[in-house]
């Protein structure tokens, strides 16, 4: 685990809270998914929590984020409203997308989350465009886009990188490499497995990040964000972490049929929450008492969010054509 | 991609043309798999590619374990590069191979429109027939479980508009196999669109390799009071509607077009000549969709037969919503067909 | 991209609504340029992007020197990355800007279908109205001089099918300016398709910034014997046809729809109520095109008015050929409209 | 000019013939274009002749080539039938595409030219697909695809490179960098001007080639072709040369408005035909007599091709829907 010295305690704790929150929300969703009340495909980010947390902690509230189908962590880390997210999973009118989007289409404009595309790679140029809008306005915002290793195979990424680099736009590309697209391993899809090499085609700064290590994520993202906010152009981060569950839904019933066992075993030794917790405890930043308190607060929030969501009204079927146009 | 078990249970069972008979039956996915298996076996030029075709789910079973039988060179997974890989398939076809490119969903074909429309559909014509492009693109329409706007489109309304393509939309397991064989054997680019809700449908599927000609619809139910033209899954809903309407004494003729390009104009015109009334039921947006073409064709060529307004049943002009209550409101079914028929039938 | 001087000469002059009057006239490209100029001037959020918008030709003059006036940040050239750059425009729109993305030709929009259809058209709905996408995409239909299959498509038949888009196809310089202003002011994605053969058309264009409402067609010529609905350049051919037919005593009503989405159903239905006869003339493939939708709409809502088969005039089901003799055979014109009218008019 | 030693005289002369032929065909087209009998947009490759010549000389007749809008040189160098090409420019039924394609859509399957796409970048994945078909058949063919610097901005190039490298397909990517897309300079469109860097994103071998120097083109392509024919996978060549004329049509009437003058002056010192001629003469491979003889033969061929084309019948307008399907 990277040394956290120099980072204010407040931030260190915030990172811990966010990772814990993502973890606990995902586990709660998973535990209730079998009830079939959340009638929307969920893509859990268990194992990847440190990426969302570390990246978003470097951002200001009005900085923009674009997300993808595996969006829960991004939404929570950017400060999205939790009850509205859970209500969206329950497809309720009170959902962040008013039940129109479901799990793959989360939005919270009050914290700069301008939407999530479930088309792999689809959000990437949108982020570059938002960054362009920021430059035109001179609003000083930075935009971050999250996407997977699979998205790094889509041509639109290269088009977007070229344009962002050409115009030196304030955007940070965050690739969450979890080595899988559905059941397909990265090696079955990519000529070389070093995604962080790709941006060099456009002379864009790029780093490999340990996506399990929230401090590594935080520091490298901070560098990229500072750099781009000061007008020096975009950067790229390849954050490696492991998808603990199946592509979608709860559990991973096909695990034995598509995972490489040694890979699985190796990654199972690494838990973004536990590693960080250990480091914080060792650094006397987190005590057992504090930890308990944080967990309780989060659980209460989650309880409330689920209660809110479950109690919320469904959309009115008469309004099926509403929101087509603005 | 099984999200939860309920999804598969919710799927509609199809009608059974051979109910109670002792014939071999296959499900829709099994029929597709058999078609590809036999094509791979028979013709070395055939290969199958697509995201997840060799994964444990084997594209809802339609490609299951084919890579084990034919090897990873002839049945292989692809990167997430829909435009590029469609171009690869087109190029392989131009160079003499016969690719079957399996896409999870029509929505993803939007990334490949340049290769499908600017290249595959035009390659023969643009070069005066000196080259051709024997390519099959399969895609499976999603529906339900909050799949929402980007994962439930059908888009055959778009392909209907493009000359040089053929467009196939079977609604039974029997047709699925026979039409997929015909598609693979065809020397031109074929868009083969399936509907996920047909995947539970079982019907008699002969073991031998057989093909069903393009451009030949089929009358699934005879009637004289109104014609309902069904596309893909809506054939099922049309049959349901016909059954219900029969209780009230209406005899509804149900036509399954099977291929939209070429379109069996004759079968529609003949039926309309008899019934004078037409409802078109589609699994796509009504506006500018395949139903518009069929209605327009009849308004021209069948004008003298038509005795009442032509009705179209399909999706309202709005993206597909996630919430199940909105899904219910969004997707038309037998009830909507019944209402449409009642409005125009005597 | 001037290939040879003859091209521009071959272009069709338009009809002149203010012939002989002392009013300010602009050509179609000048009108478009003025609309963008005034929009750029008035609203800081507006910017213009596209391949060659700042080059010496300024997109056939439509963007000429705007970069000099507003700077390279607000009027800029783009890489050849149609899908990515369309996504950039969509993202900028979502984040509050008002991009006008100029594409040379609709053919190239096929590379950007994912961003147009899966993203721009759905962003408002998919997020329950919390975000929106005020984007204008301009594209110019090519025709003639052997531009061939990949450089002459119009493709509005495709966009017609997609909810969430608006679709604008002006046929006069006056409308071009007013509708482009409306498009830029609209909070939703607008596909604005021009026809290169209208670029020589001159009409009265007021200097002030004015807008023309979407969904309002216009009767370009009154008549009672048949209705001809024209789309884009085919309005000109329809007017020519009407003139010729007048010599034989036919009074033809010519409707210019101006926008296809929203579609002015009323103007068509009212006209058909009067004439009982309908011909739709389009600059696109007939099959599955905008004309199919209009015909189907009338076959439903105007059924009681229609007294003869509905005719569609447009492209045959084949890619656009290069050779001028084949171009001549391929493109319909006034003659084809005349023939269609004769077949159905009394 | 690169040293040509070691290359058989026969090949050296063949290269000379091809360059001369392309040059003279293009000049002839240009000189007649004002007659408005070739009613199709032409994209002349004057200044870039050595690329087509050098690349195609490394190929066998049945190797595949895919071309783009600037296709004349590729067609001639691959051995395409000249009368059929000129007839295509005249939009005649005897044209290589039977008048359906025009200048941008040349084809000659008898020499492996499977077509030219006028969609920028459109031919790239086709070439990769043809190479895949060759592998499936085990026919030992190599496929080459020609595209411009502009096409290197299209996402499909990156998708194609990844897949070709992943599957080690026998394909060579030949990027003709002439620094312009229509009137737009490379620097207005690309974050970095070194296109040859891009393939490294996929660990694909790549070289910068002097596209004016036919020997450099020949040698580097030969390496790439040999490598890929032996199953070692694809390569990428960035061949730099200058577009002497406007984007399309004859002449370059906008030259002063979009060209950089010093760039122009610099490139005007380099002529692929003259440089090579000088080298061959210096190497005693080419004599004045031989040169004259070659030129005369070519001109005769060109005369005949134009006569054939001009005398050929136009397509039958009744056959406008023919060839839609095979
Ligand atoms: C363009 C496109 N192709 C395919 C899909 C189907 N699909 C949905 S998510 C997914 C996996 C994407 O993998 P990756 O980008 O690595 O993200 P991860 O799921 O691992 O987070 C796929 C293939 C899609 N949604 N969009
Ligand atoms: C996808 C696409 N976008 C735009 C165009 C318009 N266009 C035709 S050729 C051309 C220039 C391409 O430049 P480059 O690839 O460098 O080739 P060059 O013309 O220099 O040989 C452009 C922009 C097109 N044909 N296709
Ligand atoms: Mg992944
Ligand atoms: Mg170039």
Keywords:
heterotetramer; A: 326 residues; alpha/beta; Rossmann fold; six-stranded parallel sheet; two-stranded antiparallel ribbon; 11 helices; 8 strands; 42% helix; B: 346 residues; 2 domains; seven-stranded mixed sheet; five-stranded mixed sheet; 14 strands; globular; disordered N terminus; binds thiamine diphosphate; binds magnesium ion
Give an overview in words.
The complex is a heterotetramer, with 2 copies of chain A (326 residues) and 2 copies of chain B (346 residues). Chain A has 326 residues and is α/β, with parallel strands linked by helices. Chain A has 11 helices and 8 strands. Chain A has helices spanning 9-33, 49-56, 72-77, 82-89, 123-137, 155-166, 214-229, 255-258, 261-268, 272-282, 288-311; strands at 64-67, 113-116, 143-148, 171-177, 180-181, 184-185, 206-210, 235-240. The model of chain A has no long low-confidence stretch (mean pLDDT 97). Chain B is an alpha/beta fold and 346 residues long. The longest helix of chain B has 15 residues, at 28-42. Chain B is globular and about 60 Å long. The chains are: A alpha/beta (326), B alpha/beta (346). Chains B and C meet through helix 5 and helix 11 of B and helix 5 and helix 11 of C. One magnesium ion binds at residues 148-150, 178, 180-181 of chain D.
Question: What is the topology?
Answer:
The complex is a heterotetramer, with two copies of chain A (326 residues) and two copies of chain B (346 residues).
Chain A: H1 9-33, H2 49-56, E1 64-67, H3 72-77, H4 82-89, E2 113-116, H5 123-137, E3 143-148, H6 155-166, E4 171-177, E5 180-181, E6 184-185, E7 206-210, H7 214-229, E8 235-240, H8 255-258, H9 261-268, H10 272-282, H11 288-311
Parallel strand pairs in A: 1-2, 1-3, 3-4, 4-8, 7-8
Antiparallel strand pairs in A: 5-6
Chain B: H1 5-10, E1 25-27, H2 28-42, E2 46-49, H3 66-70, E3 75-76, H4 82-94, E4 98-103, H5 113-120, H6 123-126, E5 136-141, H7 156-159, E6 166-168, H8 173-185, E7 190-195, E8 202-204, E9 218-221, E10 226-230, H9 234-247, E11 252-256, E12 259-261, H10 265-275, E13 278-285, H11 290-301, E14 311-315, H12 324-330, H13 334-344
Parallel strand pairs in B: 2-3, 2-4, 4-5, 5-7, 6-7, 10-11, 10-13, 13-14
Antiparallel strand pairs in B: 1-8, 6-12, 9-11
Helix pairs in contact in B: 2-8, 4-5, 9-13, 10-11
The structure holds thiamine diphosphate (2 copies) and magnesium ion (MG) (2 copies).
């Amino acid at each position: 685990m990277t040394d956290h010295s120099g980072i204010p305690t407040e931030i260190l704790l915030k990172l811990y809270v966010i990772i814990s929150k993502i973890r606990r929300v995902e586990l709660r969703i998973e535990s209730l998914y079998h009830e079939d009340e959340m009638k929307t495909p969920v893509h859990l980010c268990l194992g990847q929590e440190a990426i969302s947390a570390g990246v978003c902690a470097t951002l200001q509230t009005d900085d923009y984020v674009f997300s993808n189908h595996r969006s829960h962590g991004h939404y929570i880390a950017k400060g999205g409203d939790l009850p509205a997210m859970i209500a969206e999973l329950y497809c309720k009118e009170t959902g962040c997308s008013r039940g129109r989007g479901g799990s793959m289409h989360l939005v919270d404009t009050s914290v700069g989350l301008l939407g999530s595309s479930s088309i792999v790679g689809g959000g990437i140029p949108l982020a570059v465009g938002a960054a362009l809008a920021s430059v035109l306005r001179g609003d000083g915002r930075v935009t971050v886009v999250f996407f997977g290793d699979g998205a790094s195979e889509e041509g639109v990424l290269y088009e977007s990188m070229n344009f962002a680099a050409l115009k030196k736009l304030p955007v940070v590309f965050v690739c969450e490499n979890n080595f899988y697209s559905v059941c397909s391993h990265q090696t079955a899809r990519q000529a070389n497995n070093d995604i962080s090499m790709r941006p060099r085609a456009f002379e864009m700064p790029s780093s490999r990040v340990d996506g399990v290590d929230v401090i590594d994520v935080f520091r490298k993202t901070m560098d990229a964000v500072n750099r781009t906010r000061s007008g020096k152009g975009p950067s790229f981060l390849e954050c490696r972490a492991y998808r603990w569950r199946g592509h979608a839904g709860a559990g991973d019933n096909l695990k034995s049929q598509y995972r490489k066992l040694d890979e699985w075993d190796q990654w199972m030794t690494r838990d973004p929450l536990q590693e960080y917790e250990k480091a914080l405890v060792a650094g006397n930043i987190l005590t057992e008492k504090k930890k308990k308190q944080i967990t309780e607060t989060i659980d209460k929030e989650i309880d409330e969010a689920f209660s809110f969501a479950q109690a919320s009204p469904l959309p009115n079927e008469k309004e099926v054509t509403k929101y087509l146009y603005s | 991609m099984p999200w939860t078990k309920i999804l598969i249970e919710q799927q509609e069972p199809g009608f059974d043309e051979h109910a109670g008979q002792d014939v071999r039956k296959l499900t829709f996915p099994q029929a597709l798999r058999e078609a590809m298996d036999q094509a791979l076996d028979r013709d070395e030029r055939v290969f199958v590619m697509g995201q997840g075709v060799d994964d444990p789910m084997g594209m809802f079973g339609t490609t299951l374990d084919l890579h084990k039988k034919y090897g990873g060179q002839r049945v292989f997974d692809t990167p997430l590069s829909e435009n590029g890989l469609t171009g690869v398939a087109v190029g392989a076809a131009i160079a003499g191979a016969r690719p079957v490119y399996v896409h999870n969903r029509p929505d993803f074909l939007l990334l490949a429109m340049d290769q499908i429309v600017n290249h595959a559909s035009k390659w023969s014509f643009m070069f005066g027939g000196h080259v051709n492009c024997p390519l099959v693109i399969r895609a499976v329409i999603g529906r339900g479980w909050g799949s929402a706007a980007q994962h439930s489109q059908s888009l055959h309304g778009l392909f209907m508009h493009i000359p040089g393509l053929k467009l196939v939309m079977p609604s039974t397991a029997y047709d699925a196999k026979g039409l997929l064989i015909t598609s693979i054997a065809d020397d031109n680019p074929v868009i083969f669109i399936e509907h996920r809700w047909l995947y539970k449908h079982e019907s008699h599927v002969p073991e031998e390799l057989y093909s069903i000609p393009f451009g030949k619809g089929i009358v699934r139910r005879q009637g004289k009071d109104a014609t309902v033209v069904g596309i893909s899954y809506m054939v099922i809903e049309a049959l349901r509607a016909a059954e219900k309407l029969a209780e009230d004494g209406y005899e509804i003729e149900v036509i399954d077009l099977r291929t939209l390009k070429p379109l069996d104009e004759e079968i529609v015109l003949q039926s309309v000549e008899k019934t004078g009334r037409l409802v078109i039921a589609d699994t796509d947006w009504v506006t500018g969709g395949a139903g518009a073409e069929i209605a327009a064709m009849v308004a021209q060529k069948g004008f003298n037969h038509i005795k009442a307004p032509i009705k179209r049943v399909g999706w309202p002009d709005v993206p597909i919503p996630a919430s199940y209550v909105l899904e219910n409101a969004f997707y038309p079914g037998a009830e909507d067909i019944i209402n449409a028929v009642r409005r125009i039938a005597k």
